[in-house]
Amino acid sequence: MLSNRLNMIQASPIRRLYPYSDEATRRGIYVYPLNIGQPDIETPKEYLSAICNFEDKVLSYAISRGVPELINSFVKYYNKHKIDFNSDEIIITNGGSEALLFSMLALCDVGDEILIPEPYYSNYNALAQIAGVNIIPITTNAESGFSLPDKSTILNLVTPKTKAMLITNPSNPTGKVYSEAEISLIREIALEKNLFIIADEVYKEFIYDGLDFISFAHFEDVEDKVIVIDSISKRYSACGARIGCVASKNKDLMKGMLKLAQSRLSVATLEQVGAANLINVPDSYMEEVKIEYKKRRDLVYNALQEMEGVICKKPLGAFYIMAKLPVVDAEKFAIWLLEEFNINNETILITPAENFYATEGLGRDEIRISYSINLEALKKSMHILKEALKVYPGRK
Amino acid sequence: MLSNRLNMIQASPIRRLYPYSDEATRRGIYVYPLNIGQPDIETPKEYLSAICNFEDKVLSYAISRGVPELINSFVKYYNKHKIDFNSDEIIITNGGSEALLFSMLALCDVGDEILIPEPYYSNYNALAQIAGVNIIPITTNAESGFSLPDKSTILNLVTPKTKAMLITNPSNPTGKVYSEAEISLIREIALEKNLFIIADEVYKEFIYDGLDFISFAHFEDVEDKVIVIDSISKRYSACGARIGCVASKNKDLMKGMLKLAQSRLSVATLEQVGAANLINVPDSYMEEVKIEYKKRRDLVYNALQEMEGVICKKPLGAFYIMAKLPVVDAEKFAIWLLEEFNINNETILITPAENFYATEGLGRDEIRISYSINLEALKKSMHILKEALKVYPGRK
User: Are residues B248 and B324 in the same domain?
Assistant: First the structure.
């Protein structure tokens, strides 16, 4: 009696191991959460303070495109990143997720296709299912550090139904930061094949080793084809705010997007008030966050390098590492860690990576580690992983 | 290059007259907003105070189904209304709009049909367009006070593609409250034809003249077929909170809905904290609101009765009145009011009703008046409407 599309949506793979994790907790085992991208950094106090200064007696609908103060704060923020968006080119959304859904709905009819490098953020599947869009994966692998394949491989995937390429940069789940050459390649294909580029850049601040972030919005040649997906969730450790935006210089697109925004009336007013005040957070906040995350990345990466049989190139961004393990089935390993393994009553919750791939069979021996918990916890977690791999019966 | 479905979505008819209204304001004319359902009642202070007491250092994602405190407050709230939902049967949504979208996505595949009495809330069109659902109107009219037609008329509209009936009770835009007989009729048809009932009951508190509210969730015979759409927007004058919920005793449905909820991760955490505290608002708040709205309804209704050629039965709920005017084209009249008419530099913004009808040609001489502004403003507004109708050149 329910719809086929509902039945086709998979339950979140990131959350699927919670029952095992809960059961471990009930047995008195402490479980380090390496599974979710929920930063442990404090949210800037500017957020809540602005909300508590709200003086209107009536909590009214905000306008559908977003409150001007927040839109203007995004304009200023983009200016800092040498990205030129004016206030007409930005619509506030319920987090990056809604910005993604709006983009799929705006570009695709049912049955249309979007190219996405795999492994990719598994939530894209649910959003594509809702929009009736087929995701066509551009396969990449751990050995190459998840670099894009050559041009002809990507061109071979383009059909008359292809409407866009969705690039997550820096990438969740891989931590990959696309090189200038890779970004040029995507632009070239977009221009040749007349495709949109949906640039999910919510991790843009999380880039290490002195690298500069290159946004697709930096390039005039594709400016009418680029849709930037953004969110304050990660950079301000404000996942619970559900404030994001979609930005594009394509006027027709933004006009259409506004109708989608009107269909849900508005984004929560107070969250917009809080988010608008984040422009007043000093730059030092993000610099310190970045230093902290770099330390975490180094700790996890170095620890993985020391584990026999683990394959993993150093990721340059976001706060995730994908690693290929010397196990047959990473999901079984993840469950075994929760059910049968512990060191001093502590174990870890990791995300099996198979669901980040669309191609059947890929990623079965890979995991994603989120390093959004503190250094001490990460150190213990890596020790647990190392010792577990030594004794796990399902090794290759 | 954009999707057909995007092009098919109409811009909000409620907001379409804003350019004319803005222009009038620029010319120094004060415009009474009779067009939107934004109550002017103060939001209970319990909302913001709970948010400002929030003590977590990190504004994390809430769980996808909603924070337990808020879900439990809905359970208690429903108990007060003799509606039995437990916490597993409720998912918190971004306002009633998301609850509606989730319902459509969960019940219908692309091309499936939902029956809705027309005139109906025009936003349903955009949501149906997004979900690829066809709305089949059950036509009702001003002369009968928007009562449902007889059973055979409705049965004739049911096809193998029909998945649900969507009933807004009390109704936006008509203010209609469905009688026990009408509710029985809908239940009968749902049982006979195995259809879901999507019961949009966000205005349930706004019922006048001593009537008791009858929820579709009061009836065990249809309990696995009823989906209640709810929102705190109207009853607590908290439209900007974007807090609603979807509730059903159908376990498979709720399990599927949870996947939809996971696809957008969560609803804003602080708004849920604020909304959960509304359970502590004394009952007297709503009683006073109701007394105030009844006065407004009476004022507008009585004024309309005194205008020659206006047809309008007394609505029993919500805060809208639909009226048939002695004009050829209500949209032209609405624009004329903004461009060419004023009394002491004051005029009114009304909503032409044509867009509330799916059937071509219906409602062209009707308007919706929202009485969510204060009595003094309504009194002046009705005077303006009365005088305008006397001199309007486009009279029938």
Answer: no
